[in-house]
Amino acid sequence: MSDALEKAEQAAREAAESTDVARLVAAVLATQQAMQQQATPVVQQTPAPARRPVGLYVAAGIGGAVAVSFLAMAAALLAVAVAIGGVCATVCLLVLRGLWADYQNQKRK
Hints:
Elements: H1 2-17, H2 19-39, H3 54-108
Helix pairs in contact: 1-2
């Protein structure tokens, strides 16, 4: 780096002797300085990820739990209804069998 600086100083001294060259070197140096200032890295802040509302998830969880409990109650009521229907059908068939047996006995007499 020091070699490059020494060469740049010598070039500047030589250019100072000639006004046109001095203006050209001054323009080049100004351009280099401007480029170095622009080349400084710009730190970009990444945006934070969007936060989703927690209340929506809590409400969905509560609603789901209520829906599952209602479905469980409906299934229990359906099971009770099927059991009652089965008992009623059994009693009906037993009564009809008894009536049929009585009818058959009266036919034979």
